[in-house]
Protein 1
Amino acid sequence: MDATPRTTLGRKADRGSHDRLAADAILAEALVGHVGLIDATGAPVVLPVAIAPDGDRVLIHGSTGARLFRTLAGGAPACLTVTLLDGLVLARSAFESSMDYRSLVVLGAFIEVVGEDKVRALRVLTDHLTPGRWDALRPMTAKEVAATMVLALPLAEFSVKARTGGTDEPVEDRDWPIWAGQLPVVVGTGTPIREPGVPDDVPGPLAPRALGGPGAL
Amino acid sequence: MDATPRTTLGRKADRGSHDRLAADAILAEALVGHVGLIDATGAPVVLPVAIAPDGDRVLIHGSTGARLFRTLAGGAPACLTVTLLDGLVLARSAFESSMDYRSLVVLGAFIEVVGEDKVRALRVLTDHLTPGRWDALRPMTAKEVAATMVLALPLAEFSVKARTGGTDEPVEDRDWPIWAGQLPVVVGTGTPIREPGVPDDVPGPLAPRALGGPGAL
């Protein structure tokens, strides 16, 4: 998609794009984003939220009693930023050291998801955060659905920024006697901690493995 | 410290605190935070930044040419939020499923770090992001220092929120036949990728291990 005046990239524009596939790839991996809005005093506030992609929008959910969700449901201008840290870039100088990352910034206003679409959206959220569990879970009650607010931010006005690769250092630094290269950051799951009530013969969740990528937990 | 009207906790206040030790523990582990500010159009915008704790403040750094840094250096109201995802909480229902996390929200305005304190702050940032490297790196040139902006946000007005532990489900859900429990999220480093110019006999960085905790890379 095209840039808007608000999503035109500034410095290091070569790291940026408005590529929907790049945005989708970030959303496919990420479990958490950060929502920015303006609070009652006029100051910016940023809060973490669980996220899930849903076609041309990004879903979040929370309690109908949460101030954040009530404000966003009222159409407040918002920004949702999703960042994946892919690695540390260790150059021979502090100045050239960096991070490999991918980040998505979406601007706009959230729209409340209601009716049958709300239950479908809750399935999408659940199966993104914990793949494949929705159909096996104890079904949501009407009371639970009513107590949950689902909001959607259209993937309309957005930008993606990313850095990948090695140190990109000046040639004259290459003789400095220190290790240099990339240290990938890996996010995975540790040993599952079974709830006391779970009998031994109930299979566990998917084996611990890296988060990220299709089908990953 | 005490809450201010802006940092008084709303819903699930039992998960929150204004405990400086809890804030410090989050900052000791985290490499990335999200800065919120209000852009020229009056809309909130959220961008990821590398962070480091430095006594009673949090440091960030970037190019003097970056719009974000110029705006923040001008004293714009800002919010820095730092989130660590500790685990997925898999209940027998979607409604009770959750995440274990710790998050720190700091409100205020950044102050530019200048003079000798700026070089010291760059050392603090470098040794937080890549422990122990500052002394071994090719020293920063005056030109590099001049091209870098360092900003500090006082740890004055802040709140911490955290969830830990298991599913906390109603008793009547415990017979539902699905695995339930906690799936810890583990962040670590993968196999280092050596820069082409690095000779074989130069030792590599610290062995891959979990990020987080004192001295960890």
Protein 2
Amino acid sequence: MTNYTELTNFIRRNIDINDEDLKTVLSYFQSVQKHKNEILLPKGKNSQVSYFVIKGCLRLFYLDEEGKDITRYIAFENQFATELVSFITNQPAQEAIQVIENSELLYITHEDFRHLMKIVPVWKDFYSIYLEKAYVNNAKRLISFTTLNASERYKQLFKINPDIVKRLPNKVVASYINISQETLSRIKAKFLLKNEKRETKNT
Amino acid sequence: MTNYTELTNFIRRNIDINDEDLKTVLSYFQSVQKHKNEILLPKGKNSQVSYFVIKGCLRLFYLDEEGKDITRYIAFENQFATELVSFITNQPAQEAIQVIENSELLYITHEDFRHLMKIVPVWKDFYSIYLEKAYVNNAKRLISFTTLNASERYKQLFKINPDIVKRLPNKVVASYINISQETLSRIKAKFLLKNEKRETKNT
């Protein structure tokens, strides 16, 4: 049986929705289990989907011209992962979605998501709130890429989103703050040394 | 008398709105003339406003820790300029708005913008579309900062938004693609030389 508890809570935290509308919304979501490292490739426009993470972790990433892998977004439990630019522009996705940990997911096609906005008016509010959060997230990342150096970006990530640093492999962390794995290792070593010194001082 | 023609056209291009609702929306906008180089500083939360450019040009910018000036967004005629993160989070603005050319503007306070979403339901659709465009714009900039080098960023800007390169001073262009003015001068010289060679070849 599909587990809608987390998604229900997530929706209710964001909008006021009555039971009937909620039932309609949930009926468009399907559950799926995905394995670590799987790439959830968009196959043509209509198969593009948004995922909601019940358990596990997904990342959205793209490749630059030299094939360098850049992670744009990481979704843990109770978060959506969507290729929003493709959703908005109705163009093929530029980003791929990869499973980082074995995951239990719900998904909805972009087509159904848009259909829901027509038949359940309050779903438009959900979309607006979703867009707002995505905008703020991207704006903050844009600021960090233009104002902070590699080491500062790592420290900021550790402060704001420690789960990314603690739970995910170095490869993903490095590609999230757009540095090489070697640079990340150096920064982490310095960072740990500093923290150890601070702890020794305080004892 | 306030000139609402451009804003009316802009709104009608984005949403279906009846005359009465349009009248209500326009009644919350006021006109103002601003001089080149003026900083339109937000004075406290309630005085934060969105601008619509009838004539002229505005930029949104922020400063990094060393005081380096970074331009996040440039609005020419028929575009809005809003500190969206502040609008969304209701926190003090992180970005300032500066007048780049003598400008004829309309403005609305964030408070009134939100109030309009309550009394004119279709204004919510306008906001969603506005958010979508802002998201796509920021996402593309995020990709360009993480995948392109200085010279590639300049070429991309020249291709996608030539007005910024042609109409604005080097200082603003450099701060928009996050490079120094010296680097911009070098890139421009190379770029012009290449184009001249191409033209000579074609004659």
